[in-house]
Specification:
The strands form four sheets. A four-stranded antiparallel beta sheet has the order 7-6-9-10, with helices on one face. A three-stranded antiparallel beta sheet has the order 2-3-8, with no helix packed on it. Helices cover 56% and strands 9% of the residues. The two termini are 14 Å apart. Helix 9 packs across helix 15 and helix 23 packs across helix 24. It folds into two domains: 348 residues, Hydantoin permease; 89 residues, Immunoglobulins (Immunoglobulin-like, Sandwich). It is an alpha+beta fold. The chain is built from 25 helices and eleven strands.
């Protein structure tokens, strides 16, 4: 380890060895290290499933992949801009935030960023734990019969143990520090790409070729059940999975159920109804608006049926469309996917050899990898419609690659593939979801919280958030989680970029970032209250739309303009934060004096 350098006049509550500017000897990351970092972060299960919500909303496969690509090209811009001060001054994100929010106020954006990271850490740890669970279950099938832990937890004991085991592996690398993370990311990147391409080869082989597979993806764009209601009679249409135009389902049955019926009640209602030959059109007599029906279909290939629900009347979705509204919401979600890293990218580029390395490395590693892996997810899941006889409705399709690989017959193949998925999840989790919150929590009390301690805090919060519940719905994941936190982080990014490029012209006094009496103390309080007010103003327009999307308030009670604004949540927040801060963010007396930066701005440092 290289000995940390302590800026002159650094206050103990604002400095520790992990938050100190990197030394020239620590600047060892070239463009391929940074590109490998992004491959390691982008090749993960959430990226694989990223296009699922877009297809389910009616977008074609190429539209979904294009949305992922364009969204990541857009987010690359703030990513490169926010990376600049990290590469120039060697400072991490929470220290950079002190320039715009104040040396004390920086804790607000840092903690907000950290809490989002804790949610992501929990999600990735759960997915990695599932891979381990399926790996063990392939070798010991009895593991699947582990005791269920009740509806509060919603998982069984073996799944919980696998989750905690994968959590422990993550914590091991956190304790080892940044050098171990750099080595692990560089080693794993080519392996992860190879695994993705192997899955794609399987999908095209099992599905009968690329054309047939991608044509099958259109089935995801249609609702499983839709209905029209006239004169008290609802006509329902079941759009089950078909192969070359022939439906897989051969029988169906349906029953009306109470709105609050539990699983046992639904099953009892269905069991009281006889099976009949499948027909896409089903007349539901004496149906009322809001009535709920449950449908079940089956085929000779699999005795177990597939369930679909309908609330009358249901709105149909135009198949294979390229809705502008879906595109815009999708772009916001794609930007939101990396809105976290667009803030804390200095945590990595502080180790870059040069600005050119960070720009080229990010450009090579981010948009192409995201587009490729989301395409792999679309293609392989579409192939599953054709390959597996028990996929009778679109909801049966294994969008999660863990669920896909668990269907394979070869235990050896399952073990190897699940191990690779666990590695993929681990690389993403450590880099994207531990490094930043570890620094962010350390920023709160540097003399008491180190990088390692901050990482452990992140891990504990990730467990307590019970992430498997957050992933219960694809729609909630895409339109509530991703879009929702982008509404919070977009304004922070806008404020920081305006401060660094517009107000300070890329010049910082690094000594003062660690001082309670310097240029960033804002009169001694340590808070830039103007930045805090601008942050609140920039977040506010998106709050009503978020509350409606999350189901906290009735969507009809929210004015349409707020729904529209929420569609562009990150863009609205970023634009407001950037524009307001550029004009009103810093008091005149707190702006840098002409000539205060330059060669001396790199900080007068001394060895500790």
């Amino acid at each position: 380890m290289h000995e940390a350098q302590r800026p002159e006049g650094a206050h103990p509550s604002l400095w520790n060895a992990d938050l100190a500017p990197t030394t020239p000897a620590q600047r060892t990351w070239g463009k391929w290290h940074i590109a490998a970092l992004w491959v390691g972060m982008a090749v993960c299960i959430p990226t694989y499933t990223l296009a699922a919500g877009l297809l389910a909303s009616g977008m074609s496969w190429w539209g979904a992949v294009l949305t992922v690509l364009v969204g990541n090209v857009i987010v690359l811009v703030p990513m490169v801009l926010n990376a600049h001060p990290g590469a120039k001054y060697g400072i991490p994100f929470p220290v950079l935030a002190r320039a715009s929010f104040g040396v004390r106020g920086a804790n607000v954006p840092a903690i907000l960023r950290a809490l989002v990271a804790c949610g992501w850490f929990g999600i990735q740890t759960w997915l990695g734990g599932l891979a381990l669970y399926e790996l063990v279950r392939a070798l010991v099938p009895a593991v699947g019969d582990a005791p269920y832990l009740g509806d509060f937890f919603g998982i069984n004991l073996a799944q919980l143990i696998a989750f905690l085991g994968f959590w422990a592996v993550n914590m091991y690398f956190v304790v080892r520090g940044m050098d171990a993370i750099k080595f692990f990311e560089s080693w794993s990147a080519p392996v992860l790409i190879a695994v993705g391409l192997a899955l794609l080869a399987w999908g095209f082989s099992e599905g009968g070729g690329p054309g047939r597979v991608l044509d099958a993806s259109e089935q995801f764009t249609r609702p499983t059940v839709s209905a029209t209601l006239e004169g008290g009679v609802a006509t329902a249409r079941l759009d089950v999975v078909s192969v070359d135009g022939v439906p897989k389902a051969t029988e169906l049955r349906y029953a009306p159920v109470a709105v609050k019926a539990d699983k046992a009640g639904v099953r009892a209602a269905l069991d009281a109804v006889a099976w009949r030959p499948f027909s896409p059109e089903v007349a539901l007599g004496a149906a009322q608006e809001g009535d709920r029906f449950v449908f079940e279909v089956r085929s000779p290939a699999k005795e177990a049926g597939s369930l679909a629900e309908l609330r009358v009347p249901a709105e149909g979705v135009k198949p294979g469309g390229f809705s502008l509204e879906i595109l815009l919401v999708g772009l916001t979600a794609m930007v939101g996917f990396w809105a976290t890293l667009s803030l804390n990218i200095p945590d990595f580029t502080r180790f870059a050899r040069s600005q050119r390395d960070q720009v080229h490395g990010q450009t090579i590693g981010l948009p192409p990898t995201m587009a490729l892996y989301s395409f792999i997810g679309v293609a392989v899941t579409s192939a599953s419609l054709l390959a597996f006889p028990d996929v009778l409705v679109q909801g049966d399709a294994p969008w999660d690659p863990v669920a896909l690989i668990a269907r394979f017959d070869s235990p050896v193949l399952v073990v190897v593939a699940m191990f690779a998925l666990a590695i993929a999840t681990l690389t993403t989790n450590i880099a994207a979801n531990v490094v930043s919150p570890a620094n962010d929590f350390a920023n709160v009390a540097p003399s008491r919280i180190s990088f390692k301690t901050g990482g452990i805090i992140t891990g504990v919060i990730g467990i307590l958030m019970m992430p498997w519940k957050l992933l219960a719905s694809v729609g909630d994941y895409l339109f509530v989680w991703l879009v929702g936190y982008s509404a919070l982080l977009g304004p922070i990014g806008g404020i920081m970029i305006a401060d660094y490029f517009i107000v300070r012209k890329t010049e910082l006094v690094v000594d003062d970032l660690y001082s309670d009496k310097g240029a960033y103390s804002f009169g001694g309080s340590g808070w830039n209250w103007r930045a805090m007010g601008i942050l609140a103003i920039a977040v506010a327009p998106n709050v009503p739309g978020f509350l409606a999307a999350a189901g906290v308030v009735d969507g009809d009670a929210v004015a349409p303009i707020f729904h529209d604004l929420y569609t562009y949540a990150w863009f609205v927040g970023f634009a407001l934060g950037f524009g307001l801060y550029a004009f009103f963010g810093v008091p005149r007396g707190a702006r840098p004096a002409k000539g205060e930066a330059g060669s001396g701005a790199r900080a007068r440092v001394r060895d500790t």
